[in-house]
Amino acid sequence: MASQAWQITAPGQLSLVDVPKPTTPLGDLEVLVRMKAVAPNFRDILVVDHNPKYPAPTSPNLVPGCDGAGIVEDVGAGSTWKKGDTVLIHPNSWLSGSDVRSFDPLRTLGSGTMQGTLRRWAVWRDDQLIAAPTNLSLVETSTLFTAGVTAWNVLMHGFCKLRPGLTVVTQGTGGVSCWAIMVSPVCCGFVVRGTDLLPR
Q: Quick check: helix, strand or coil at residue 135?
């Protein structure tokens, strides 16, 4: 059965192409996911544009996208997932710990030689998947990792950890700012102001 993927066919150019659907049986601890939602981030623009500000050179016909969510369609031997599970894709190789030096931008989905999420079907390893929250749609879930985790990290583990009574000022209306606006009141009932909404 044919599948489709968006590939970078030239700097700044994405093309929708037909690609083979991954075949089964899957390998041990592999999972076939039908991608249902992908959330673009600023770093994806850098990758698509072959911008030298991003540290990993873009390989030919790369599928971009580091964030995404979908539904498990098939599982390999030993997998802890089952058909029908809704999942969020973990986009990088830094799976645990708090040492930022463990993050390797050259091994992040949708950049360098690492095929990303902007495709209909993808095979992932068990440890690349996170159970999707049951109270969010797959579209909402797809935004969680890069923007959501960044906002959470800054607000809860940053230079000035949030506490009741603080005011959060966000810059712009990008993904991180939107997540900060949503996360702050939920956490502690903070007053949140978006700079785009303040008088100039």
A: coil
d(CA 92, CA 107): 6
Which residues make Cβ contacts (< 8 Å) with residue 118, sequence separation at least 6?
A: 5, 6, 14, 35, 38, 63, 64, 65, 68, 110
**What pLDDT is attached to residue 89?**
96
Q: Give the CATH number for residue 157.
A: 3.40.50.720
Domain termination site, one of 115, 137, 159: 137
Domain that includes residue 23, residue range = 2-137
Q: With contact defined as beta carbons under 8 Å apart, do 38 and 175 qualify? A: no
Q: Give the model confidence (pLDDT) of 65-99 as tens digits.
A: 999 999 999 999 999 999 999 999 999 877 676 77
For residues 109-131, give the mean pLDDT: 95
Instruction: Report whether pLDDT(28) > 90.
Output: yes
Backbone angles phi, psi at 68, to 5 degrees: -175, 165
| Whole-number Å distance between alpha carbons of 23 and 32 | 9
**Rounded distance, CA 184 to CA 32, Å?**
35
Together in a domain, 6 and 36: yes
The total number of structural domains that make up the chain = 2
CA nearest neighbour of 41 among 108, 94, 133: 108
